[in-house]
Amino acid sequence: MQAANPSESIAHGGGLAAPDYRKLIESAPDLYLILSPDFTIVAASDNYLRATMTRRQDVLGRPVFDIFPDNPHDTTADGVHNVRASLERVLRNRVADAMPVQKYDIQRPVSAGGGFEERFWSPVNTPVLDDAGEVINIIHRVEDVTESIRLRQRGIEQEAANELLQRRARQDEGRFRELLEAAPDRCRRLKRRRTDAGTAAPRLFPRGSHGKLRPSGGPI
């Protein structure tokens, strides 16, 4: 009996198990969050949960902005507004939307001290379309760029500090140059005063008959 062609078996579905997409998403090496069209969380990669210090059982089935609100202590926080605007563009245009680097702080669990932790992200939101071209899910992929931003900020601060030191050094050098340029005049004035003082000494203290200095106007 002739052996079956493996390619034919695959083409007819024989011997090829259907992929477990949930496991694929959960095991993905990048940071993925899968949203429904109403922005409810339906799946998340393990790395996303790890990066955001959340647990799968706490986020699935929850509105994304309930799980990730703005930092209430940051009056300039605009993460919710900007991410929502990007997701709405995906729904409207049905194409991927790459966002600029976004500051979006995350909540620390109570076990980690609570409060919010400063984070910067590079997000891309991509639609998943059905056969009719309708959006059935949105893939929210982010890259944590916090460390890069902090290094850049420290670099800018260091550059500003270096510029300040250089400016002060230039000012000190300018003052030193002014002192050097003024030194000959000061030396001449000092020499002139010494000469004048030497000339005045005999008048103030004329010598007596025995060659000793005596104050001018005193007895002989």
Quick rundown:
With 220 residues, this protein is α+β, with helices and mostly antiparallel strands.
Question: What does this protein look like?
Answer:
The chain is α+β, with helices and mostly antiparallel strands and 220 residues long. The chain has 2 domains: 8-144, PAS domain (Beta-Lactamase), CATH 3.30.450; 146-190. The chain is built from 7 helices and 8 strands. The chain has helices at 6-11, 21-26, 46-52, 56-59, 64-67, 79-93, 146-204; strands spanning 31-35, 41-44, 97-98, 102-103, 106-107, 116-117, 120-129, 135-144. The strands form 2 sheets. Strands 1, 2, 3, 4, 7 and 8 form a 6-stranded antiparallel beta sheet that branches. Strands 5-6 form a two-stranded antiparallel sheet. The longest helix is centred in the last third of the chain and has 59 residues, at 146-204. The protein is elongated, with a radius of gyration of 41 Å. 14% of the residues are buried.
Features of the shown structure:
2 domains, 220 residues, elongated, alpha+beta, 17% strand, two-stranded antiparallel ribbon, Beta-Lactamase
Write the layout of secondary structure elements.
Layout: H1 6-11, H2 21-26, E1 31-35, E2 41-44, H3 46-52, H4 56-59, H5 64-67, H6 79-93, E3 97-98, E4 102-103, E5 106-107, E6 116-117, E7 120-129, E8 135-144, H7 146-204
Antiparallel strand pairs: 1-2, 1-8, 3-7, 4-7, 5-6, 7-8
Q: What is the arithmetic mean of pLDDT?
A: 82
What's the oligomerization state? single chain
The CATH homology group name of the largest domain: PAS domain
The best one-word shape is elongated
